[in-house]
Structure formats: C-alpha cells, structure tokens
Write a structure and sequence with these properties.
Layout (H helix, E strand, L loop, with lengths): L7 H12 L1 H17 L2 E10 L5 E12 L3 E3 L5 H7 L2 H21 L6 E4 L2 H5 L3 H12 L6 E6 H5 L2 H13 L3 E7 L5 H7 L4 E4 L1 H4 L6 H16 L3 E4 L5 H10 L3 E2 L10 H9 L5 H9 L3
Parallel strand pairs: 2-4, 4-5, 5-6, 6-7, 7-8, 8-9
Antiparallel strand pairs: 1-2, 1-9, 2-3
Helix pairs in contact: 4-6, 6-8
The structure holds ligand C2E and magnesium ion (MG) (3 copies).
One magnesium ion binds next to loops.
C-alpha cells in the first residue's frame, strides 16, 4: 500500500499477499460485493484546534463491516482495492457517503468541513477532479467544506498529473492536505510546486514529541516551513496531554489523536458534541467503547 510502506501492518499484509494470492483475489471479489451491498462504513475522527479545543473538521476513515470477519481496518482491504482498480468506486462511495453525512451535521448547525483520504491512484486518474466536482455540485458543498488528504508519496508519484489534479481541485474550492508528512523525501520541493492547503505531520514524529529532541527539531521546522508557505499544520496521533501541550506551545494549528477522540460512527459524535457535556477530551472514554 503506497504511502504506508514500512509500517508494521503493511509489511505483514504484503507478506500475506505474496504467500496467499488466492486469499488476495478473494478479498477483491468480496470487496466488489461489499460495495454493491453497502458493507463499507465511515468512521469520523475530529480534528481539534489547539488554540481553543474547538473542532476544525472531521476526517472520514473507511472500515468494512465484513459479514463473517467483523470490522476490518483499511490496511486489510485498501491494498487489494488499489491493485484491482476498485479504489475508484470505493473512493466515489466514500466521497458520497461523507458528503451525505456532512449534510446531516450541517442541518444540525455544525459547519464542520469533512476530510476524505484519497489514493495516489485516484489522483492520477484523469477524470478524478470531474468526479469530485460532480459530487460537490450534487451536494451543494460550499467552498472549503471538503478536503482531500493525499500522501506525500502520492504527490511525488506521477508528479505532473497529481499536481494538475491538485490545481483543478483547488480551483473547485476543495482543499488538499498532505497526509503523513515528513516520511517521504520529496517534501520541500513538492510543497513549493503544488497548491496544498495543509500538512499533516506523520504520527511517527508526534508520538513521543514531548521528550524526543530530534523529533522536536523536525516538527518545529515543519511548522515554520508550512507557516512560511501559508499552510495550516495538523499533528496526527496525539495521545497524551504532554504532546498536545508541546504542540500548542510550538504553534501547531490543529491536532488529531486518541487524546481527543478515536474514530467513530458520526451519530455517536453527534451525541457527544451536540449535547452540553460534549467535548473531545470529555468524550474520550465513551468513544473508546464504540466499535
Ligand atoms: P491516515 O489518513 O493517516 O489516518 C490516521 C490513522 O491513524 C487512522 O487509522 C486512525 O484511526 C489512526 N489514528 C488516529 N489517531 C491515532 C492515535 O492517536 N494513535 C494511533 N496509534 N493511531 C491513530 P485507520 O483508520 O486504520 O486508517 C489507516 C490509513 O488508511 C489512513 O491513514 C489512510 O491513509 C487510509 N485510509 C483510511 N480511510 C481511507 C479511505 O476512505 N480512502 C483511502 N484511499 N484511504 C483511507
Ligand atoms: Mg488521513
Ligand atoms: Mg495521516
Ligand atoms: Mg498517518
């Protein structure tokens, strides 16, 4: 799975895939049915403004409610989707569902932008910006209310096509975020040449940020660089108050992580954030219990 290569779960998946091609084909066949039968679900994880703890948006994260294997995480089926071309209908499904869900919280008075993850393969498909434009038009999505998260690797892949897509999407009022920022090596030149709105600092730099001096140096320079280019900065994988405090002090704009909330089905978020008790930190323990 591009952009995540090197993380433990992906290494395992790759090994699995090589050892059991039949299993892998089965995943593809089942996934095709899953799309037809509406077995995919979206969970949402809030992005929190470090300055005031307000919610600055929700990120959609896909799961597969498999009839026999339970709730599967993206690492278990996205590689098969990307290899087989199913990633195109899958991404279209995710976009449509995310915009439908957004219409739900907008009707309740919450203007939260929604962020959808897209694969390198989506970005490189020539018709992709038109597909997004059609969905946005159909939903009447205002400018700035939909963000697409793409990995640094996706921007570096077929750089010209990806950059063109980002330009087209930006012109449609759709912001592009660079996800997992910092683990690729092309970051600086890509940021200069592609009109992205946000960088999301990869979790690997964030986890022990309150104590790890090299990571502190890296994150401080990413924040300075991004702000110098007029981009917002989000830190992923914030799990402790110490890391959150460090990031706030360093001038990071937004944070996401288990400290604030785990990804969860949006009606649960609705309960937690629209009732008077609701706040990310407050709700953490309850969210942990949600499947
Ligand atoms: P990502 O976009 O970088 O999303 C962040 C991942 O980190 C999510 O895993 C999230 O559940 C997890 N996470 C969030 N906060 C914390 C934390 O504090 N600690 C830890 N340890 N983990 C945290 P998830 O949902 O398994 O997604 C994995 C990746 O799959 C995503 O990484 C994204 O690249 C991809 N993905 C997810 N949904 C979609 C989708 O709809 N389409 C595409 N193309 N890719 C998706
Ligand atoms: Mg993401
Ligand atoms: Mg990320
Ligand atoms: Mg990440």
């Amino acid at each position: 799975y591009q952009g995540k290569r090197g993380t433990a779960d992906i290494v395992l998946y790759d090994r699995d895939q090589v050892a059991h091609p039949a299993h892998w084909l089965m995943v593809q066949t089942e996934l095709r049915h899953a799309l037809e039968r509406d077995e995919l679900v979206l969970h949402y994880q809030p992005k929190v403004r470090l300055a005031d703890d307000g919610i600055s948006g929700l990120e959609a994260l896909v799961r597969w409610q498999h009839p026999s294997r339970g709730l599967l995480s993206p690492a278990e089926f996205l590689p098969a989707a990307e290899q087989s071309g199913l990633i195109e209908p899958l991404t279209a499904w995710v976009l449509r569902r995310a915009l439908d869900d957004q219409a739900g919280w907008t009707a309740l008075g919450q203007q939260w932008p929604v962020a959808v993850n897209v694969s390198a393969r989506n970005l490189e498909a020539p018709g992709f910006p038109r597909v997004v434009a059609a969905l946005v038009a159909e939903h009447g999505t205002p400018s700035g209310r939909l963000l697409l998260e793409v990995t640094e690797t996706a921007l570096a892949g077929d750089a010209a096509t990806a950059a063109d897509a980002v330009v087209e999407l930006t012109a449609l009022g759709i912001g592009v975020s660079v996800d997992d920022f910092g683990i690729g090596f092309t970051s600086l030149s890509q940021l200069r040449s592609v009109p992205v709105a946000e960088v999301k600092i990869d979790r690997s730099f964030v986890t022990d940020l309150d104590t790890d001096a090299p990571n502190q140096a890296i994150v401080r320079s990413v924040i300075a660089l991004a702000h110098g280019l007029g981009l917002r900065v989000t830190a992923e994988g914030v799990e402790t108050p110490a890391v959150s405090a460090w990031l706030a002090e360093a001038g990071c704009d937004d944070a996401q992580g288990y400290l604030f909330a785990r990804p969860t089905a949006w009606p649960h978020l609705l309960d937690l954030y629209l009732n008077p008790r609701g706040s990310g930190r407050h709700a953490r323990a309850e969210l942990d219990a949600v499947p």
